[in-house]
Amino acid sequence: MSEVEEIKDKNYEFYINADLSEYAGKWIAIVDGKVAASGDRADEVYDKAKGMYPNKEVMLAKVPTADTLIL
After folding, report:
1. With 67 labelled, which of 2, 20, 21, 46 sits at a CA distance of 20 to 30 A?
2. H or E element: which one contains 27?
3. What whole-number distance in Å separates Cα of residue 33 and Cα of residue 12?
4. Which residue ranges make up each domain of the chain?
5. Prediction pTM value
6. Rounded to an integer, what distance in angstroms lies between the CA atom of residue 59 and that of residue 35?
7. In the chain, which residue ranges form alpha helices assigned H by DSSP?
8. Radius of gyration of the chain from Cα atoms?
């Protein structure tokens, strides 16, 4: 597994297992297994995280609300 794949796995693992309820309905940027930025617009969240961590892999995700059904 490459280093980039390992980072992506770490970020995805964090997203799946972390309590992200405080970010419900928001976009989050995950860098190195932690939330680096959050907000209502994906582009702004990504740009903020990339500005803070220009040489890091940024994972962008929308945190579902309690009434969201994921199939």
Report:
1. 46
2. strand 27-31
3. 8
4. 3-62
5. 0.86
6. 9
7. 3-17, 42-52
8. 12
